[in-house]
Amino acid sequence: MNDRRGDPFDITSAAVALVDAHGTIRFWSAQAEALLGHPAAEVLGRPVTSVLATRESPASALSGAHRVRDGWEGLVTLRHRAGHGVQLAVRACPLHAELGSGWLAVACDVTSARQWELDQAVVRGLLEESPIGIGVLDTELRFQWVNRVLATMEGLAHPNGSGATDGPPEAGEVPPAVDWQARQVLMWGRVTPALEHVTSPPGMYRRKTQDHLRLRSSFPLRDVAGKTLGVCHTAVEVDARDRARERLALVNEAAQRIGTTLDLDRTVQELAEVLVPQLADFVAIDLFRGVLAAKDLACGPVGHGTLQRAAHLSIRDDLPETVVPIGEPSGYPPDSPQRRCLTTGRPIRDPMLDATTWWLAGDPQRRAKLGRLGVHTHLVVPLRARGETMGVVTLLRWENRDPIDEDDLLLVEELVARAAVCVDNARRFVREHNAALALQTSLLPPVLPDHCAVDVAYRYLPTDAEAGVGGDWFDVIPLSGARVALVVGDVVGHGIHAAASMGRLRAAVQTLADLDLPPDELLAHLDDLVLRQADEAEAATDNPMVIGATCVYAVYDPISRKLNVARAGHPTPAIAHLSEPVELPDIPAGPPLGLGGLPFESAEIELEEGSVIALYTDGLIEASDRDVDVGFERLCFALAHPDRPLEEICDTMVRILLPEHPHDDVAFLVARTRALTPDRVASWEVPAEPRAVHEVRERTACQLADWGLEDVAFTTELIVSELVTNAITHASGPIGLRLIHERTLICEVSDASNTSPRLRRARSTDEGGRGLFLVAQVAQRWGTRYTATGKTIWAEQQLPGCPPP
Predict the structure, then answer these.
(1) Element (H, E) at 393
(2) Which residues contact 209 (CB under 8 A, 6 or more apart)?
(3) Which of 279, 560, 590, 636 could form a disulfide with 582 if both were Cys (CB 3.0 to 4.6 A apart)?
């Protein structure tokens, strides 16, 4: 329903007629027909006097007519088709054209015209004559219009010096109180009126400086369609001589100013700013170390805990009362009011008389400062919230000669109690924030491994910037045979729940990668895990979580220079070649993890050494404008020139693809490929005969001599001998031996059998079964991986002079 009253003379709703210079009607609108009943066919071409109630001229028919710019406005009585007279309000303006001149007449009923005039008078009176300050701000929180009253209140300059302005003020920015309320209106659509205690200079409504209460209110200004055009701010001042109203204003101010953020330091400073100078000349806020460190408060007597200065404020800039700097232990004596306040949990009010300053005998520095200033009142209030004492607030008076009475004490207790809740909220937030960061740190790799196959760099940007956690993850996992696995995944949702699910999936990927599964098979096992997690979430009785994820898993082999990739509902990797444009390879798009019942496929890509592989979450390509095609174009542009340092490439991707505040978590991993040259790899086919063992031992010794690795010849020959012997004895098909010299020495023996060997402890009566046990003792790592034609047993040795991987 639209109840807005517009201008009744608007031609879209008013009756319109066009009369030529001879008084003949040339146009007659549908609204005119509705008002007077005359169809256009009856009046067009007839004199205008035919519709007047009397035969007098049109000019004389206007009663009480007055000029409106170039035209006239007044009342006229017209004849209805039914015969009775109808009094209308009419505006007429002359028309001058090449084909002739005439008059354009716009008419409406008298009631609407008078109501419109009354509305306009009310608006003019409210804006220009009433003592209410009124201003209009646009959506950028800039003044577009202020009346004289608000300009006087806020000290704003006028374009015309008096009356309501027809534009923004000439100088001065928006006052903080106005800005704060306007922001709340734009964010939430409404704001609670606020009382503010102000000291107003002499002005239009006062002869001298006075203390006042200022009632502020703001509301949105919207057009007919409901779009917010700006904010209207109003302010009214009332006399603040009544102490009850002053206290109400201070409580209201505290509610708005204290706890505006979840920053602990800022919260205690806001409390100090509310108390000084309204209630104290100096205030000191001391908190337990556990509160400042955002830890759980220690059990036991609070009176003996270590207090630390969190904030202080004085009416003087040089802080003459201060004994302890911020951040240092407060050092209150055992019998001080602060310690007694902590022990009893009650406020202590000390008039600073000689008989009551005995507790300062052991603190000569404080005693000298308080005595020199002439402090006459000393009030200590405990800072308590949710049954826990977090510290004390100390108030001093010397410039204000009034002692702190019972009303002041009640007011201080109320303000401190409100602030205590905000302090506790800030402490709990910091504690949860630290816990979330610790969780995220434990879930993501703290340092990516330095691998011979790739150089890597990454960025992790959670959308929950305050908590610092999200559901995206990445990993670089060393595999056997000098290969490496690159992983990037994305869990549905944000925050700590998504991070917990991400941690489970990352651990699962690492476990499955340790089994050396192909990428498509690994994603199939990961899909089963997500299905089980979803079942567990649905079975939860409270707050079941939606479990779902996407993932891309790639294995790069520096010997063959091939990349084997599979993806589950995840964007395809981008590959920046050295001599070709950036490629988005067509990797089969498997379903997202958690759907179940659908297969995954992998693709193999051959890469030249120095190519850059980029794996990323969808938040990267959808961040700018949610147009995926544009995101891919920007990604290709950012990856151009892959010979640049990887950190520079990462910075370029962030700058080109991401806005200042991304709407989704973003994680990406870039890797530059390396290749092992043929002279670092030696391989032979081994006949399935026992005598072949001696031959491969000799070949191995010769190859190690060529590589200068004579120091590990004995252990390597032992490993080769045992693995080849096992293959000849227990396996079938062609047997192969491969030695890989990189940061470690890798020995691989392949055969056509799918039976995996197992490590066991042989009994003293057994003739065999000790081969793998010996291999495990001399090798740094060993294991088995399955291939399309059988299996490969591998063992790694640490080389002298090389750091462990």
Answers:
(1) strand 388-397
(2) 199, 200, 201, 202
(3) 636
**SS3 category, 366:** helix
Instruction: List C-alpha distances in Å: 536 to 228, 500, 506, 525, 529.
Output: 45, 14, 18, 17, 11
Closest CA to 521 of 564, 486, 561, 562: 564
Write out the DSSP string of 149-187: HHHHHHTPPPSSSSSS-SS--SS-PPPHHHHHHHHHHHH
Query: How many C-beta neighbours within 10 Å does residue 665 have?
Result: 27
Question: CB neighbours (10 Å) of residue 2?
Answer: 6
Instruction: Give the Cα separation of 17 and 554 in Å (integer).
Output: 79
Going by C-alpha positions, the residue among 255, 284, 248 that lies closest to residue 269 is 284
DSSP helix/strand/coil, 116: helix
**Encoding tokens for residue 666?**
């973003």
Cα–Cα dist 340/703, whole Å: 82
133 and 153 Cβ atoms separated by less than 8 Å = yes
Q: Give me the pLDDT at residue 358, please.
A: 66
Q: Cβ distance 525 to 517 under 8 Å?
A: yes
Nearest Cα residue to 457 out of 639, 660, 330 = 639
Q: Is the dihedral of CA 337, 342, 344, 349 positive or negative?
A: positive
Q: How many CB atoms lie within 10 A of CB 728?
A: 20
**Spatial separation of the C-alpha atoms in residues 384 and 423, rounded to whole Å:** 9
Give the pLDDT mean for 658-680: 87
Name the strand (E) or helix (H) holding 751: strand 744-751
Helix (H, G, I), strand (E, B), or coil: what is residue 432? Answer: helix
Which carries the bigger pLDDT value, residue 614 or residue 370? 614
* The pair of three-digit structure tokens given for residue 394, joined into one six-digit string: 């100390």
- For residue 772, the number of C-alpha atoms closer than 13 Å in the C-beta half-sphere is 16
Does this model's pTM top 0.70? My answer is no
The proportion of the chain whose per-residue pLDDT surpasses 90, expressed as a percent, equals: 26
Per-position DSSP letters for 674-733, written without gaps between them: ----GGGEEEEEE-SSTTHHHHHHHHHHHHHHHHT-GGGHHHHHHHHHHHHHHHHHH--S
Calculate mean pLDDT across residues 111-139: 85
Residue 682 scores a pLDDT above 90:
yes
Find out whether 149 and 133 touch, Cβ atoms under 8 Å: yes
